[in-house]
Design a protein that fits this description.
The chain is α/β, with parallel strands linked by helices. Helix content is 36%, strand content 26%. The protein has helices at residues 47-54, 77-84, 102-113, 118-131, 147-158, 177-192, 204-210, 228-232, 237-244; strands spanning 7-18, 21-32, 36-41, 62-67, 70-71, 87-90, 165-169, 196-200, 213-218, 221-226. α4 packs across α5. It is globular, with a radius of gyration of 18 Å. The protein binds adenosine-5'-triphosphate (ATP) and magnesium ion (MG). Adenosine-5'-triphosphate binds next to β2 and α1.
């Protein structure tokens, strides 16, 4: 554990159903500030749904989401926008704006949420792109980037406002192992710079590289939680199956 003990993100008895399908079933989870938390689970278990709750894109049927100790449930749209300034979100499919250049993508949160001048915005966006090794792609369109470069550009955009919390959904999906490791390294750098990471992945080598703590979501519940070596020693067959898999994606 590298961070202080204050949870910066807390799910407090959170439940969420779609129709009769209970996706999150009384999930309680604390993520200490400055640490990297990795959420594992099979496809369709609710990992993306959990991230969407943290950023207030979905509301729980029961329970609370606390960001830096503050319950976001009662917040109106404006209050939520304020909270989201402190949370970067890298979506599962990168989700760059296809009609904007890479530079405009990275600048987007700055235009939306700050009063910086055009010049300052450009400088800052350029810096964020340089941080992820895309200093030369500022004027390119997303369609002209490789999958790994798109992920990096989306990471630059997610980091534009220097958020204290970065949520990342499947950073290595569709990437080769080397590119995937490069993305992992960028995330670890962000953590060293003080950002709290919440990362969803199926990629166990990646989870080991990034995570201070890992948890496994199954049937709506967290069935295991601990460091990678603690989970390696877990006797639950499902946990063993996960920890022994080398699968990417
Ligand atoms: N907006 C929604 N409306 C209805 N059902 C939804 C909605 N969002 C998610 N679900 C359902 O919730 C379940 C969990 O979805 P989620 O996207 O969180 O899975 P996941 O763990 O991220 O899977 P993957 O690893 O494939 O990305 C799925 O059964 C999905 O169909
Ligand atoms: Mg998902």
């Amino acid at each position: 554990m590298t961070g202080s003990r204050d949870p910066i993100v807390r799910l407090d008895h959170v439940s969420k159903s779609f129709g009769t399908h209970r996706v999150l079933d009384d999930v309680t989870l604390d993520i200490p500030k400055g640490t990297a938390f990795v959420l594992l689970g099979r496809s369709g278990t609710g990992k993306s749904v959990a991230l969407r709750h943290i950023i207030g894109l979905m509301r729980p049927d029961a329970g609370r989401i606390l960001i830096e100790g503050r319950d976001i449930g009662p917040l109106d749209a404006r209050g939520l926008t304020e909270v989201r300034k402190h949370i970067g979100f890298l979506f599962q499919n990168a989700a760059l704006f296809d009609s904007m250049t890479v530079g405009e993508n990275a600048a987007f949160p700055l235009r939306r949420h700050t009063r910086l001048s055009d010049h300052e915005i450009r400088d800052r966006a350029q810096q964020k792109l340089a941080d992820v090794g895309l200093e030369r792609e500022f004027d390119k369109m997303p369609a002209d980037l490789s999958g790994g470069m798109k992920k990096r550009a989306a990471l630059a955009r997610a980091m534009a406002l220097d958020p204290g919390i970065l949520l990342v959904d499947e950073p290595s999906a569709g990437l080769d192992p080397i590119t995937s490791r490069e993305i992992d390294e960028l995330l670890v750098e962000r953590k060293r710079a003080g950002t709290t990471l919440v990362v969803v992945t199926h990629n166990i080598p990646s989870a080991r590289a990034i995570g201070d703590e890992l948890a496994l979501l199954h049937d709506g519940r967290l069935v295991a939680r601990g460091t990678a070596s603690e989970l390696d020693r877990d006797r639950e067959p499902l946990v063993q199956a996960f920890m022994r898999s080398q699968g990417g994606g």
